[in-house]
Structures are given as structure tokens and as C-alpha cells.
Amino acid sequence: MAAASVVPTAYQQGTTAAVPDWLNKGDNAWQMVCAALVGMQGMPGLVILYAGLVKRKWVVNSAFMALYAFAAVMPCWILWAYKMSFGNQLLPFWGKAGLAASQDFLVLQAFLPATKYKNITPAIQPLYPMAVVVFFQYAFAAVTVVLLAGSVLGRMSIKAWVMFVPLWITLSYSVVAFSIWGGGFLFQWGIMDYAGGYVVHLASGAAGFTAAYWVGPRLKEDQEEFQPNNLPLALAGAGILWMGWTGFNGGDPFAANVDSSLAVLNTHICATTSLLVWICWDVVFKKPSVYGAIQGMITGLVCITPAAGLVQGWAALVMGIASGSIPWYTMMCLSNKLQVLQKVDDTLGVLHTHAVAGILGGALTGLFAHPSLSSMFLAVPNSKGAFYGSGGGMQFLKQLLGACFVIGWNVVVTSIILQVIKVITPLRMTEEELKIGDAAVHREEAYAPAGQGQRERPTYNNGNNGAIEMSDPLV
Q1: Cα dist. 440→154, 156, 408, 430, 449 in Å?
Q2: DSSP characters over 127-155
Q3: What homologous superfamily does CATH list for 25-426?
Q4: Its domain of life (predicted)?
Q5: Are 126 and 255 in contact (CB under 8 A)?
């Protein structure tokens, strides 16, 4: 993903008008719609998805963790994290913190990051205000930390989570975002990550699995019996997540152009193929399930994310087959064989659906990225996958090394953050809270007990000066 950065002083002219000369209304409208779609993936998409997939006693807690994370990212983002992700360089992997909430900054035209290498030139130029880019990128950051929450549902202390979110956004997300999207060393090196296969999904999967290790497992009874409490509700959340991906990938060319159209189509080609392949594997080895279909959908969406506007339709189809097969194997088979996967309680399998699918998508991008499509988007010339001639094999190797950096950074930084928080407050809930769930943690329950939460029964007159209560209550 190419990214917007600090606006040069030379371009501060003409911004006093509501519609300055440089503003493209179509691109501006498209980008704001995409930002809203990405935001809806987190709120209400993932909030609803988590509420439907977890055990009944954890509905409120899971939804609350997602809701809090989505909100907590914003003040961090505008006060320091956006500039750390897309501002001036402090270190090759670290941007300088700064305020991104001033009017003088937000109403000016968005610009791509400056690069120190002469052979790297911007492939695209946003034609709308910085405010749009700041909000668009906020939505990505917020969704990332909400995805991470899926690994620690059902046992992480709310106090610990409250402290974890701003620290992780600052020390982990912003570093990876700057390194790959904001002009950092991986950006300069030519790593391909169209819309966040590494920055969002691999990062959240690696960090989530690490956090699950340090927080510890759920109660044994919860691990053994953790049936979704409301599958139709989960499907509604999954549907919002899926359709929201139209903006997730379609907004990354920063314009309503040919590349954005291709990215949207490829997104849905891969997602549908992956979902169907996952179901086929379920049919062959066990019984098909709604839960499995949702997982297959997610792995397809994640896999295509780093490649959405860089590959042809046939490649998106192949990626869908791969994303419906490899994560299925790691989740359904390998997780029962590898001891490390058995020891770490990753509640919703974020490691498989996001980390594994993210690495897979990044690696396949290094194989299938088409030179002509890459030139429409990437800031690095002659970028191409290994299938398109000499030099492409190096791109594949770069993709793997880039994944190693994202994994390594998140494992180390997430561990440090949690160890610091542990000194201040326990990472886990109390035993009583773990046994009782929402009622003990929040003094709230998602569903009222039988006989409660009902309106008063209506009555009607029987004509003999007597009121008769109707038999069916209005719930």
C-alpha cells in the first residue's frame, strides 16, 4: 500500500476554498466510502461476529473488547500514531510522532511518502485532503487490534486490555506500517503489501498468538465446550466483514481507477473460492458447518489482501484454492499434532485465519504479481512476481523476509508490552470471573434469563367487566 505523508509547504496554496483546484470529487467520495466500509468491518462487523461466535457467557465481554479497541485507537492515531506510521523518518523502521489533528494539516492535499532513493517515484497521487487519508488509515489500525482480540477472548482482564491497546498501536502497529507503507526500509526494499496482508493480518495473527501465550488458556471447561451461542448473528457480522472488504482493498489505490475495480473483483473471486474449497474439505473429512464456511471466507479475504490489485483474475482463483486448503490444514489437522499449537489457546484461531493466510498471500504475491498491474500502483519500478521472468524470484524471497520481520517484531514487542502490564495489573480475570463470565465482569448479560426482560402482558375486556390476561407474552 502506498501511503500519504507530511504535506510540503509548497502545496499549501488554494486550500481556503471548500473545493480547491486540486480536489477530485469522485476520488474523494470513493475514498470516504471505502474508509466507512473498513470502519464498519470493525464496528459493527467484528463486534457482532465475536458476539455470535463465543460461548453465551462471554457475549458481552467479547463485544466490549472489540468496541473499546475500535474507539481507543482514534485518540492515539490523531495525537501521535498516524505520523509515526506515515510521517518523517526517525529510524529506518520508525516514524517521528506528531499531531495529525490540526486544520492546517488536514485540509491540505494528501501526498505520498518521500523516499531517499532516486529510482523510486510515486505511482499514484491522491487528489483529496489529508483528513480522508487519516480516517482511512485509522480504520485499518482499529480493525487490526480488534482482530488481535480474537485470540484472547474469554479470559483476558479488561484492565489489561485497556492498557494494551494504545501501547500495541504505538509500539507495534505503527512500526510495521511505517516500515512497509510509510517509506521505511521494507518499503524502500520493494516489499509488496497492497492492502495489509502483512501490516494488518500477519501482525494481528502473530501478536494475538503471542498474547494468548502470555495471558494463558481459558478454563478447561471453556476450551472443551465453546459452541457459538448465535450462528445467525455471527453470519450477520461475517457478512458485514466480507462486504466491508470492498473498501478494505478497493480503497488502496487511493483513487477510483482501473486498479481499484480490479482489486474489488479479485477480492470476491478469492473469498468465494476459498469459502467453497473450505466447505469441500469439511465434506470430505467431517461435516460442513457454518463456522467452517466463515473461516474459509476470512482466509480467502486475508490471502488476497496483499495482492488484490497486483494479480490477474486467474491468480485470485488459485489463491482462493490455496487459502481454502492450507489454513484449513493448519487449523483442522496440524493444530492437533504440533505441541506448540496445542499449548497456546488461540480462542478464534486468529493464527490460522490471519497469520497463516497473511503469509500465504504475501508469498503468492511474490509469485503472481503482474508487472503491468504493479506499475499502476507500486512506487518501485519493475516490480513483478516470479512467474514473470528473471528477477521475480528475488521478489518472492523479499516477501518471505518481510514476513519474518513482521512476525519477529510482533512477538518481541507484544511480549514486552504484556510483561510491563503484568507488573501493574493481572493479565487474566479472576477465577470467579472466568467461571461466571459477563455477569461477574460487567454486571451485564447478553440475554435476559427466562421470565425477565419481558414487557407487561396486554389485557383485553371480556365484556363482563373483567380483564383477561392474554396468554402470549411480548418478549
Answers
A1: 12, 14, 36, 10, 15
A2: -SBHHHHHHHHHHHHHHHHHHHHTTSTTT
A3: Ammonium transporter AmtB like domains (1.10.3430.10)
A4: Eukaryota
A5: yes
